[in-house]
Amino acid sequence: MQINLKETADFLKAHDNFYILTHQSPDGDTMGSGFGLCCALRKIGKKANVLCSDNFPKRYHFMYEGYVPQKFAPETIVAVDVADKKLLGPGLAQYGDYVDLCIDHHISNTLYAERLLVYPDAAAACEVIFRVLAEMDVTLDRQIAECLYTGIATDTGCFKYANTTKLAHIISAKLMDCGIRLEQINREMFDIKSKARLKVEQYINSSMEYYLDDKCAMAAVTLDTLAEAGLPAEEFEGIAGMSVQLEGVKVGVIIKEKEAGKFKISMRSASDIDVSEICRKFGGGGHVKAAGCAIDGTLDDVKLKLLSGIAPALGIDLWLA
Amino acid sequence: MQINLKETADFLKAHDNFYILTHQSPDGDTMGSGFGLCCALRKIGKKANVLCSDNFPKRYHFMYEGYVPQKFAPETIVAVDVADKKLLGPGLAQYGDYVDLCIDHHISNTLYAERLLVYPDAAAACEVIFRVLAEMDVTLDRQIAECLYTGIATDTGCFKYANTTKLAHIISAKLMDCGIRLEQINREMFDIKSKARLKVEQYINSSMEYYLDDKCAMAAVTLDTLAEAGLPAEEFEGIAGMSVQLEGVKVGVIIKEKEAGKFKISMRSASDIDVSEICRKFGGGGHVKAAGCAIDGTLDDVKLKLLSGIAPALGIDLWLA
């Protein structure tokens, strides 16, 4: 059942002993929503814990500084930024069928919860949480504000992406009143990199190849190079964006060998070209500007297949190029 | 004479035939201020041109799409985002002593103009221009809005830096109402890179050296390597930020050889350390988090001198490190 802001606020005020569920491989938005809501509920005298199938990532340390799980029997299950109960992950799967309230912003939400507050036009779940807390008249403190700000900033690429809303800006202005450490948070979220990450980016940049009048960029990471170059697999998150950073590139591709001869492809568009359409030709799918597919074969085969799918979208005849 | 918003609006409404001066090596804020103000003045029936000592950079093409210089004898000289008349550059130096109005946000403004609207707390000159246009009751269109948005976005690193104001967010929300191409502009401003720039970044990353318990990062570009690696000097803008991107690095240094044996140093702080204080030891200066100096000698001498200045600030004994 879809409920509105006021009903959500009333529900939260009327209940207690909350388990707040975040999605697996937690990002800034699910973490910010979880801890922002948890802090707020505790502030008005409720018992609440944040749960995640994975460990809380160290990079969001400022969200859970001083956080200690409370002991209580859970009565109310709330999921935040979780579009599908499958995304709760193995550690929280047991709660999947018992979610009392889901607060989210994904249009793909599978409506698995008993009550739903899903605003698909919101930039982030944290934008929705902010509105819920305003409706509840909770006074925000710096910690809550930093949680919500981080969710909005990370989901919008720091107000850079198309999903940036007017409200994202307006809420950020309001959160600045709470003394958030804006510069420090953004530096940690967007600028600082580990040595391993820098190595991966160096590798991707130096191995990028350009095709089809330089309108298509491709970089490949095989199991061999991964081992040889000592590139840690977990540092590849978000690397697909690097494929469209060169000016003039319209379609970018990162090819990753998952098992010998089995490749996972991430495709990005920096133009009007719908890469989900290209990926569908290979049994994949996704969004207009970010899609993916899987192709088996040799690396050369995979590249040629991809180019044969991309060339027509660029209006280029592969065999004359 | 410092004047206020209303006086500025009245002055602009009462005058005509504007030359709007931008600073040399134009950035997004001076360009956005210049073209935003020019479009607005033309919209209310005034004659106005934007002038710059350098060519208008191609990357800001959307600001001057359809812009044609008008023919008129200048009567009113306005400088935007120009802190010092020296910054007008050789092409506009002739106007330096005749600036009727300066709209700016630099605390270092030398107050060279007859009338001054300088808000040092503003994130960007475009923030001040927005307020002036609001005071003048000019209805913003998409082009004006994109000019002002770009100035605010570029001067704040897309709302990432410490100079980001509440007003920067609130104004951006208002500018979104004018249908700005937010995603496209931010992609062009922040994500797309030329092949030459990627090459420079690759070079800087691969030549970065770490000292003092990895708390200090240094990269050097000598005249020899510049020539050998074919690195274009004009692609080094803003490269200093790369020196503090590795986690744990507190002070970052980029050393550039300008002439044989003469080095220009850019220093960045990613901590509480005041790098302007360090640079002052070498006859330089700047801001707490971004400073510079010049040192002559061999590259090894220069590095050692710098390390001897940086080590105490990090609380490290250079000779025991």
Structurally, the number of domains of chain A stands at 2
Cross-sheet strand order for the largest sheet of chain A: 6-7-8-9-11-10
The CATH class of the largest domain in chain A, by name, is Alpha Beta
Q: Give the percentage of residues in beta strands of chain A.
A: 15-25%
Biggest interchain interface, per-side counts: A-B, 37 and 38 residues
Shape of chain A: elongated
Tell me the radius of gyration of chain A: 22 Å
Helix content of chain A: 25-40%
Number of helices of chain A: 10
| CATH architecture annotation of the largest domain in chain A | Alpha-Beta Complex
CATH overall fold name of the largest domain in chain A: inorganic pyrophosphatase (n-terminal core)
What's this, in brief?
Chain A has 321 residues and is an alpha/beta fold. Helices cover 35% and strands 17% of the residues of chain A. In chain A, strand 1 (18-21), helix 2 (28-43) and strand 2 form a beta-alpha-beta unit.
Outline the fold blueprint.
2 copies of one chain form a homodimer.
Chain A: H1 5-14, E1 18-21, H2 28-43, E2 48-51, E3 76-80, E4 101-104, E5 115-118, H3 125-135, H4 142-155, H5 166-176, H6 182-191, H7 195-206, E6 209-211, E7 216-221, H8 223-228, E8 251-259, E9 262-269, H9 275-280, E10 285-286, E11 290-296, H10 299-313
Parallel strand pairs in A: 1-2, 1-3, 3-4, 4-5, 7-8
Antiparallel strand pairs in A: 6-7, 8-9, 9-11, 10-11
